[in-house]
Amino acid sequence: MRIDLHTHSTASDGTDTPAELVRAAAAEGLDVVALTDHDTTRGHAEALAALPEGLTLVTGAELSCRVDGMGVHLLAYLFDPDEPELARERELVRDDRVPRARAMVGRLRGLGVPVTWERVAAIAGNGSVGRPHVAQALVELGVVPDVSGAFTPEWLADGGRAHVEKHELDPFTAVSLVKAAGGVAVLAHPGAAKRGRTLSDAALADLAASGLDGVEVDHMDHDEPARARLRGLARELGLLTTGSSDYHGSRKTCRLGEYTTDPEIYGEITRRATGAFPVPGTGGRP
Questions:
Q1: Average of pLDDT values for 23-27?
Q2: Helix, strand, or coil (residue 12)
Q3: In 141-208, which ranges are E strands?
Q4: Which residues contact 41 (CB under 8 A, 6 or more apart)?
Q5: What's the pLDDT tens digit per position in 136-163?
Q6: Residues 6 or more apart from 202 whose CB is under 8 A from it?
Q7: Is 270 exposed, middle or buried (0-12, 13-18, 19+ CB in 10 A)?
Q8: Which value, in Å, is the radius of gyration of the alpha carbons in the chain?
Q9: Cα–Cα distance measured from residue 238 to residue 150, given in angstroms and rounded to the nearest whole number
Q10: Which residues does 89 contact at the CB level (< 8 Å), separation at least 6?
Q11: Judging by DSSP bridges, how do beta strands 56-67 and 279-280 pair with one another?
């Protein structure tokens, strides 16, 4: 089985619609794909309606968190999307995205970059506007060579010149909310040093003690030493280890299925979940 547990669609900051994404996943030979848009489940219905035969969809979301001034992302799988407390927190994060993006545009213009809110909003379309959309506008202007080049201290990285904070969950609270909604909580790309500061081993241990289920180990932003360190920590802490593409369509260079999750780990994730269950495709729409 080929299992990719971290992807994004136009419901947040990907470039494929949810329907296009599941069709692309099937074309890449995946057996299981998780749709984990940022702080939203809005793409799930479209993905399910288009789900090709032979492909199973895991519903999820990537939750925006912050601890000690550092951004942390939590992959939440197979939770009940209607559970009120978790739904309320996702809404608070989404509501703060527009004023935050507008403020980043203002800071960039103050730095002499002729970016406009209208262009950023157009790039985001119907998705949840975020830093990748601002980054794409910078690419179009020739300010940076690619989207990743915008996530530096010079521009949009945490603490960067044009960075603006938004409402984000405490990761310990997020884990608790996901578990209460019947979901499974996996820390996304915790060793991605190129993005800025990373979570300390002690903090990861505290999260494990608070109910965290796993860590994403095989990811494009982890080098081999980071992967080895995370695998060792996971063994010590009794955490599951996953692998995923973090696919964003054409916005990033990674391919669907570039990194995958072991079928036994996937089986354990599905066994722990009680809020929702994987959905096998029956053909979808043409």
A1: 97
A2: coil
A3: 184-187
A4: 59, 61, 81, 90
A5: 999 999 999 999 899 999 999 888 999 9
A6: none
A7: middle
A8: 18
A9: 36
A10: 63, 169, 173, 174, 177
A11: antiparallel
